[in-house]
Design a protein that fits this description.
Elements (H helix, E strand, L loop, with lengths): L2 E4 L3 H11 L5 E13 L3 E13 L5 E4 L8 E3 L4 E6 L4 E7 L4 E16 L4 H6 L3 H10 L9 E9 L2 E8 L5 E6 L5 H18 L4 E6 L4 H9 L3 E4 L2 H4 L3 H7 L14
Parallel strand pairs: 11-12, 12-13
Antiparallel strand pairs: 1-8, 2-3, 2-8, 3-4, 4-5, 6-7, 7-8, 9-10, 10-11
Length: about 260
């Protein structure tokens, strides 16, 4: 548990959301808001109390007080914009392909919660991206011999690079980890590579690390001069039994979260 803040003001909301929305965290915001969508169609939700959830894969859901289906949603968000104004907090979520924008205007914030979730049953079946991040940091030769990790979650204007490294020849390497990569994953990796090339004025390698890859996505990757490294979950998860035993009940947790 990272943060739970009750009745945050707009400036606090802007600070926290700007920090965590682009990172591998689940973010929940509850409050009075209106929602506008523009893309393949247009829609508008007038002011009402809603729960906004951003998941760790960047999916965005806007829920009302009833029904299991979201009022609005984005399967993946490429760009986030958060701005505190005198009488509202503006949150924009943009998807680039296709071009879609969800604009949420909060008139009042009831609570804001930031968590990082791990689903143990999911780990047992397929593994989790954070396991691959940690395994690469501990043993970079999973990706390539003589690879040296420089930094995890390196921030760029395009977002956070999963693993930033250098190869045996001293070239910078941008590594994007994804369990189920698609075309958007390739485009995101390309944006990271472009940002690092602009920063250092050098050629930069981009590597997509995943358990599997479709032929079409692989072709799309290679057309851009990017690389693919496949990993087996058995290589990045030390013990399925350990994962099962790590699952706790509510009584096992200490109240170490923050409440403001």
């Amino acid at each position: 548990m990272e943060k739970i803040i009750k009745n945050p003001d707009f400036s606090d909301g802007e600070e926290i959301l700007s920090e965590y929305l682009r990172r591998n965290f689940t973010v929940q915001v509850s409050g009075l808001c209106s929602v506008n969508y523009q893309g393949r169609a247009k829609s508008k939700l007038d002011r009402g109390e809603r729960l906004v959830i951003k998941k760790q894969d960047s999916a965005l859901l806007v829920h009302g007080p009833e029904n299991y289906q979201p009022k609005n949603w984005q399967p993946e968000v490429d760009e986030w914009e958060v701005k505190a104004q005198e009488d509202e907090l503006l949150l924009k979520a943009r998807r680039k392909d296709p071009d879609e924008i969800v604009e949420i205007r909060f008139e009042d914030l009831e609570f804001l919660m930031v968590t990082q979730l791990v689903d143990s049953s999911d780990l047992k079946i397929r593994g989790h991206e954070i396991d691959i991040h940690e395994s690469i940091e501990e043993d970079p030769k999973i990706v390539e011999e003589e690879l040296k990790v420089v930094e995890r979650e390196r921030e760029t204007p395009a977002g956070f690079i999963d693993v930033f490294a250098r190869d045996s020849e001293g070239n910078y390497v941008v590594i994007e980890v994804k369990r189920n990569p698609d075309y958007n994953t390739v485009l995101q990796l390309q944006r990271y590579v472009d940002e690092i090339e602009d920063e250092f004025s050098l050629n930069v390698r981009g590597i997509l690390v995943a358990p599997k890859m479709t032929d079409k996505v692989l072709d799309y990757l290679e057309e851009r001069g990017l690389e693919f490294v496949g990993v087996e979950m058995e290589d990045v998860i030390a013990s399925y039994e350990t994962i099962d035993n790590s699952q706790k009940g509510l009584s096992d947790f200490n109240p170490d979260y923050e409440v403001d």
